[in-house]
Write a structure and sequence with these properties.
alpha/beta; Purple Acid Phosphatase, chain A, domain 2; 8 helices
């Protein structure tokens, strides 16, 4: 039983679809999306793809802010959530309103907790590679899968495995490598997969038009070495 996890597309539907192809090529039998289909890049195409493909999803903080209408006004030039809300297809808005904050699924190795943020704050929490994991109460779960920070890692603390699957559409460690996770539900092994999204991002930016300088800087960021995960060339 191989499960694919993907998160934080943020309007980059081209990179999101690339991530789905990469996970399928790696052998994923089912895929879960861990939130933030929208935000930063205008458009709701990722939500349309999730609906069309029947992929189960978790509500991210950007979906929550859009639904509540409480995104900080001074962040609108970056988040673009008010614009997205105005232009979003009504069926897509209804779809994200149905997404839960958490989901528990069963695997042969045990229960898996899926969320966007953190076990203590499922929607808005941030868990980084260096976050202290010892305070999270997840003893009934074999593993926790999350996103939100756009920085992937796989760490074990006590009896629980913690996996941040990173971002497929707006990676913050190195902007040209999207991230996703392949989990073997029989062995408990989790693998972070990285894939080049330069062409997809160029296409997304050509489609969306001008984005905030902060967003462009994330796409332009590169690391010389040491990114987390295994790079694949599947397209």
């Amino acid at each position: 039983m191989r499960i694919g996890f993907i998160s934080d597309a943020h309007g980059n539907v081209e990179a999101f679809c690339r991530g789905l192809r990469v996970l399928a090529a790696a052998g994923a039998e089912v895929i879960h999306f861990l939130g933030d289909a929208i935000g930063y890049l205008p458009g709701d195409e990722v939500v349309s793809e999730l609906r069309a493909r029947g992929i189960a999803a978790i509500r991210g903080n950007h979906e929550q802010m859009l639904l509540r209408g409480n995104a900080p006004e001074n962040r609108e030039p970056v988040y673009r959530l008010r614009q997205i809300a105005r232009e979003m297809h009504p069926e897509n808005r209804a779809e994200i309103a149905r997404w839960p904050a958490t989901r528990t699924i069963d695997a042969p190795v045990g229960k898996l907790l899926l969320l966007h943020g953190s076990p203590s704050d499922p929607t808005f929490g941030y868990v980084y590679p260096d976050t202290d994991l010892s305070g999270f109460e997840v003893t009934q779960h074999f593993a926790v899968f999350m996103g939100n920070t756009h920085r992937p890692f796989v760490r074990r603390t006590g009896s629980a495995l913690f996996v941040n699957v990173g971002s497929c559409g707006l990676p913050r460690d190195t902007g040209d490598l999207g991230a996703a996770c392949l989990f073997d539900g029989s062995t408990g092994d989790a693998q972070i997969i990285r894939f080049n999204i330069e062409a997809e991002t160029r296409a997304a930016l050509a489609r969306c038009g001008t984005v905030a300088p902060d967003v462009g800087a994330v796409f332009a960021r590169r690391v010389a070495e040491g990114y987390v995960g295994t790079r694949v060339d599947a397209s």
